[in-house]
Specification:
Number of strands: 0
CATH topology: MetI-like fold
CATH class: Mainly Alpha
CATH superfamily: MetI-like
Oligomer: single chain
Distance between the termini: 47 Å
Helix content: over 70%
Strand content: under 5%
Length: 221
């Protein structure tokens, strides 16, 4: 534990950097995944195709490949992300996590939509609501109550996947702290133990919070 004790401020900085990275990615993935789920159940065939294609491509592609494309592939075709705090790889890393995780969020939300009784949507259409109004005001609020556990699992998996982003040069998060400590001569085991503890500090409270949210939602049903 020598690295954890001697370089504790670096671990704290990496912890906060990982939280920042995951916060942006989680918000983006939840929004994009919900939009894709709406596409999947849309009566418009092109939208259904887009949703199906997105899920098929990203769910069946390794996250490493996705991050390589965003970090090194897109700049070669003229798509350049702005820097964040002098770090050119922060936003490509966030974008890669968003696009990859959104595919799993989409399927979780779609399962929730399919669990809503069809009569709810039929009643909404009977009173004159459009598809968008029916989905936004009737179906999705009920669907989200049933998908808190799977969505929580997806977000926790995304937090752990954020470690891969550090391999692409995103500085200031936990993976870069491990690499920096190893370069300073600390043992890899000691440094990685500190990183593992930091991830547990993030994921365990997240799991507890999701459990509390799930129980409160169940009471309201």
């Amino acid at each position: 534990m020598d690295a954890l004790i001697a370089e504790f401020p670096r671990f704290v900085g990496g912890f906060l950097g990982t939280l920042r990275l995951c916060l942006f990615a989680a918000i983006g993935a939840l929004i994009l995944g919900t939009v894709l789920a709406a596409f999947r159940v849309s009566p418009v065939p092109p939208l259904r195709f887009v949703g199906q294609a997105w899920v098929t491509v990203f769910r069946n592609s390794p996250l490493v490949v996705t991050l390589f494309i965003f970090a090194f592939g897109l700049p070669q075709v003229g798509i350049v992300f702005p820097t964040f705090g002098g770090n050119a790889f922060f936003w490509p890393g966030v974008a890669g996590l968003i696009c990859y995780t959104a595919a799993f969020v989409c399927e979780a939300v779609r399962s929730g939509i399919n669990s809503v009784p069809p009569g709810q949507a039929e009643a909404a259409r009977a009173v004159g609501l459009t598809f968008q109004q029916t989905l936004g005001t009737v179906v999705l609020p009920q669907a989200f109550r049933t998908v808190v556990p799977p969505l929580g699992s997806v977000i926790i998996a995304m937090i752990k996947n954020s470690a891969i982003v550090g391999a692409f040069g995103v500085t200031g998060e936990l993976f870069s702290v491990d690499a920096g400590n190893t370069a300073l001569g600390y043992s890899a085991l000691s440094s990685l133990t500190g990183v593992a503890i930091a991830y547990l500090v993030i994921t365990i409270p997240a799991g507890i919070a999701l459990g509390v949210i799930e129980r409160k939602i169940e009471v309201k049903r």
